[in-house]
Structures are given as structure tokens and as C-alpha cells.
Write the C-alpha cells for this entry.
Amino acid sequence: MDNIKKIKLKLFICSLSFFIIYFGVAFSMLIMKPNEKINYQSNFKVSEKKSKIRGNIYDNNGYLIATTIRKHDLIVNPSVLRDPKKFELELKKIFGNNINFNFEDKFFTNLKYLKVKKNISLRDYNKILKIGEPGIRIEENYVRKYPGKSLATHIIGKVDIDGKGVSGIEKKLDNELSSSKDIHLSIDSGIQNILKQLLLDQIIKFEADAGAGIIMNANSGKIKSIISLPDFDNNVNNNLSKKQVFNNATKGLYELGSTLKIFTAAMAIEDGKDNQLIDVSSPILISKSHRISDIRKINFPINLPEIIVHSSNIGTAKIANSLGHHIQKKYFNLFGFDKKLNIEIIETSTPLIIDNNHPSSLMSKSFGYGIQISPLHLTKATAIALNGGKSITPTLLQNKLNRNKVIQVLSKETSRKLRSILYLVVNDKNGTGKSAKSYYYPIGGKTGTVKKFIDGKYSETENIVAFTGAFPIHEPEYVFTIVIDQPKPQKFSAMKNTAGWVIAPMIGKLINRISPLLKIKPSNLLPSELGLEKYKIRGATL
Amino acid sequence: MIKRTYMLILISVLGVIFFNYEIKNKYHHKEKEIVLINKLISEKKQNIKLMRAELAYLSRPERLQSIAEKQLNMKEILPTDIWNINDISKLYFEKN
């Protein structure tokens, strides 16, 4: 009996120890391991969160415009250095003599954190560690870099120290960019460079203050280039003047003068008033001090195409007067002059339009005084007028789904007539923009020269000049707008500073250079084969 | 007889413990390796990014243009220099 009891006890002890060991192992496998696993995974997550860096910005051809790169900063805790003198010497050995820290100085020995050098290589860091001093580490930082420098200054904008966008696309699309999404723009960096150069040439030649240029697809509204001068290098943060930072092309509001005659002509043609003859021989008196007059005196009645080609203020004002306030306002709203343009940058403005029922404001608005719009507004309106009358939405993105419904603003026939008139402005011998002519591409456009409004009155010497148009004009693919602020009269321009002298010469060059990039074939059509209306333009003197 | 069974059980338990320890150890090693590799990958990715930025900086249109003007003795492209492949083949067949 005793024996059996003994055996039972032994068996019990054995099975107990077995169970203890067994469950101990099971416990360590089931409970301990997952714990450690969670630890590891959370480590991963932390490192991944850190590496969630701002997305890149690319242009239409995949050229990198903005990117975020990592850099290492060397941090030293001078209060724990054992041999400051030696450490300083060793640092000088590695970085050269431009490191000037006297670590023995009391000022430094009290410091706990000192950024000794920004952006060091890991190889240098290893060398510093080998000095054998405590209190040395590196800090990882991310910086936003713009490899193209001043390629697309105002479109891209800037970020602050924390990597949050403060202007341009960086601000408007901050949500996408900060969640690591890449953005592809419709901008073409090659065209951007060409437009900037040509514009800069003209600005320097005519000692102008500022300039803006836009090239946009006439049918899809995709913007190929926006230039605003003066500009700056996006990588530079200090010493920027207000003028450099200001985006003239989308934020700047200007009275754009005769370029707006295109839209008065559009209203007149839509209203069936394009064939009447108008007497433009005598100025219109509005008040004692103010009257509407022309530079070219024409003393016989002329029709609408001739009014536009000769750029007659009197003729345009009379047409507008016959149309009335109501129609003008309706069309200005349809062309988008009533509101801000919604594009992918924050720098946009609402046009300023004089809104009263006086006939003088109606007449002056018809040829571009008393209405301040941005060059981008003008580009959009020109596109609508020339692309067959369809409304468009300007955009800077490569693939944007256009949710806005396309409205037929003008009839196709009106648009064709406008194209014919603008073709003549550039290609007729009486046209104001004839130096814009290109021998390879049919171009159409309208010049505009405005007296600048300075200190409450219109200056007699300072001008703003503008040119807007499309190419190839018989089937417009791209529209362009160039604005130059305050060009000075030059000897080589016969002391003139009008749009025909300042901007028109660069248009032909510009289009010859950018068309191959935009894949537009040179036209070998005769003027009569373009499918445009053939208007006869009489000279200023018969 | 019973003693032998005890011994067997004991040995197998010890075996299991050892085996478990080995696997755990390996697992830890691999985990550490993964962390290291991931770190390396992100490092390399950062380097690639830096190189891309460098490439974009060197191939910015402004710089390419000035180099081309200095180094290449070539004229600006004129629109007449651009031909459609169909037009060229047409010309070729007309000649022959």
C-alpha cells in the first residue's frame, strides 16, 4: 500500500512539474512574444511616421520642380566636453577654419545645445565621433529644395521652416503635399524658360518696371507657363522685396486698355451690330476735362473690323453706347470678369470694375479704362472669345477632371469673325500689332496701351502695355497674354512705348520658339486658305 | 518502467524548451535584421531623392541653354526644320 502511495505521490509531483514547465513555456510563447512583437512594430511605425515627407512637384514632362531632401545637422553639448581645446582643433581639421567656436569660453561651456554645422556628411560625423568626446550627436532634418531655382517662382510658392506651405501651390495644395502625394503640373519648364528670357529681354530693353506672361491651352484651359517679373530664387528666404514676391500675372490688377476691345467687338457681333458704319472723326466730349479721342485720326465712317484694327477708342465707345450697360455687364460676367479665378494658387484677385449707370463709365469700360483685371482674367476671356465661344476653366494641374459644365458663351460664327479681325490686327499693313507677325505660324492678337493711373490721375508719360492673342489663329490651340508695366520710350523705338513697339516684336519670336515644344506644325496655308472672313481694311487716310 | 517514462518525458520537455529558445532567438535576430534593412532602404531612398534633386538642378533649362550656347556650335531650331515623317517619305517616293 505504502509503495503505491509513494508512487502516486511521485507521479503527482512529476505531472505537476510537467504542467508548470509546460504552461511556463506556453505562457512565454503566447504572452511574452506578442508583447515584444508589438514593441518592434511600434518601432517601425515611428520610423515610418518620421519618413512621411512632403510630396514632390513635377512639371508636365516629369521635370522635378520641388522636392524634400534630408540633411544632417551636427549638434554638440559643450557643457560636457572634456577637452574643449582639443575638440576645437579637431573640428577645424575636419571642416576647415570657417568653424569658429571657442569652447573654452564661458558662454559656450554653459550651453547644453549648440548647432555646430548644418548639413554635414555621415563620413564627417564618424570622424567627429572618433575624437572621443561625449555630447555629440546628429539631428535629422528635412529641407524643401527647388532645383529649378527661379524657374516657376510664383506658381510654386514657398514653405515655412516647419514645412507648411505659405504661398502658391505649396499653400493651396498643402493637404495633398503633406500627405506625401506627388503633384504633376501642366507647366512646361522649357516654355517657362523661353518666355521668361524673351520677356526679360524686352523689360531690360525698355527699362520697364515689371512684366507678366501667360500661355494657356485655348481648349482645355491647361496653363503651360506663367511668368511674373521681377522674380526670385525659391531657395532663398531673405532679402526679398515686395515687388519680387508679388505675382503680377494672377494677383496684379491692371487696366488693360484696348485689349478689351475684343470683348466689346464680341458683344457687337453677337448683337448683330458688326456691319454698321460709325463716324469716328470727332472726339466724344464727356466733361470739360475728359474726352475720348484717338491717336489715328480717321475722317470717314468705318465698320467694326476697321475700328479694331485701327484700335479706335471713339468707335468702340460708340458701339458700347449703342449696346448699353445691361449687355456689357452680362458679357463681362460671362467672360469671368466678375469673380476671382479658381486656380491652384492662392494669389488671385477679384477684378475692380466701376459700377455705375453713367454713359461715360460704359464707354470707358468698352476700351479698357475703369476696369482692372489680372492678366490671367484676360487670358481666359481671350480663350473664350477665340476658341469657338466655349467657356473654359484655367488650371495648373496636368490631369484635372473638369467638373464645370462647358457653356457656349459666344456663337461659333462670332468667334470665327473675331479670329478674322485679330488676324488682321497682326497681318494687315494697317494693324497695330504687325511686328508680331511670324512667317511660320498665323498669329492673331490685339495690342493695348494704357496710361498708368498714378496718384489719382492718368499719367501722360507712364504706360502699361499689353498684348493678347492666339496661335495658330485659324484653329487656336494656345492663347497668350503679355503685360509690361511702365516701359520707357527708347531711341530705337522712335521714342515710343506703345504695345506695338514694346511687346509685339517678341510675340513672333516667342511663338516660333515654343511651337515646336508644343507640337504645333508650321502652317503652309495661304492667308486665303485659313477659313477666315476676308475683311477689307482701309488706311487711316484715303 | 515508469521511471523510464518519466525520464523520457523530462528529456522531451527539455528538448522542447531548447527548441523553443532557438526559434525565439532566430526570430529576434530576423526582426532586428528587418529593422536594419528597412532603415537601409529608407536611407537609400533618401540618397536617390538627393540624386534626383541634383540631376534636376544640373538639367534646369536655364543652365542647359547657356551650356549649349557655349559648347555646341548650333543654330536655334526654326519651325521650318520640323518635318512630319509622312511628308519626308512622300518627298522620297516622289523623287524615286
Q: What stands out?
A: Residues 123 and 246 of chain A are 42 Å apart (CA to CA). Residues 35-49 of chain A have pLDDT under 50 and may be disordered.
